[in-house]
Every structure is written in C-alpha cells, then in structure tokens.
Amino acid sequence: MTPANRDKATEEFVIFAQRFMHFMNLYTVYRDMLSGHYVPTLNPPSNEPATFPRTNETVMLLLYAYLYSLIEQDDQSLNAFRIWRARFPEEENAIAAVEAEVTPFAEHLKRFRNRLAFHGSTSMAHEASGYDLFANFSGMQILTAIKNFKSLGATLFAKDVERQNAAAGS
Predict the structure, then answer these.
(1) CB 148 within 8 A of CB 166
(2) pTM of this structure
(3) pLDDT tens digits, one per residue of 64-112
(4) 64, 142 contact by CB (below 8 A)
(5) Which segments of the chain does DSSP mark as H helices, in order?
(6) Domain ranges of the chain
(7) What is the per-residue burial (b if ≥16 Cβ within 10 Å, else e) of 26-64?
C-alpha cells in the first residue's frame, strides 16, 4: 500500500469510527427508551392520533438511517464491510457472517432512509415504499442484525486499540 493510499484508508477509518460512534449512541438511546430506562420529556400524550410521531419512532428512523450510512455500496460512501475487510482480513468469517445478516434488507433500508428518514418525500404515496422494509423484515430481525453489526464493530475497534497499544509499546 502506498503512503497516499494508507493515508486515505486511515482518514476513511477515522470518519467511519466517528459515524460508528454516532450509530452506537443512537442505538443506546433507542434501547434505553424501549426498556424504559430513558423516558424523553417530549412525547405526545397517549390520546394523540397515531400519525403524531413518538420520540422512540424518531430515534428508530435515525438509527436505521445511520446503519445504512455505514453500509452503502457506493465507492464514495462508507461501507463497514469493505473497511473492516481491508483493516482486519483475518476476521473475514465474522465480517461475512454479519454482512450476510444485513445484506438482505440493505436495499429496503436505503429506500427507508431516503424516503422516510434523511431525505423525505413530498407525498405519502412516494413515502409508502419506505415502509416495505417492515413488510419484508420483522423489527426483531432488523434489531438482531443491528446488535450483531454493533457487536462486531465494537470487537474490531477493541482489536484496533490493542494493535495500536502493542505498536506503541514496541
């Protein structure tokens, strides 16, 4: 790897690490909200119409959108699996296992992100296909994949820290 490629890979890894931590923070808030550990001060009364978004729905939108932002296939975008493979080739089996869990709903997640979370739609008809994610995959299936993605990321970041500490001690 040339110095320029190494610098680009390092920069991409740092950006990925920052976005991954945002993802981890969103995951923590979402799980804390679902468990009742964290109760937001802003939430519509229970007698409000179902179309009035609840805070946990907002956080779920962000969590799912952030997940997609970490697995985009475009060469100009972050892709955890590509980044992890380049940095941790010895972890191919673990990376491939989590990728196989996430990939089946990646295109639906992209549409969800584009039409409901980050980009939005100007009509409910256009927005509707964003909900196909839930027509094709259960919330538990997605949440399990998110947990495994998060766990693999945390494990690989810990491994990276160990490598850096070992190199600094040499």
Answers:
(1) no
(2) 0.87
(3) 999 999 999 998 999 999 999 999 999 999 999 999 999 999 999 999 9
(4) yes
(5) 3-35, 55-69, 80-87, 92-102, 106-112, 124-128, 132-136, 139-169
(6) 3-164
(7) bbebbbebeeeeeeeeeeeeeeeeeeeebbbeebbbbbb
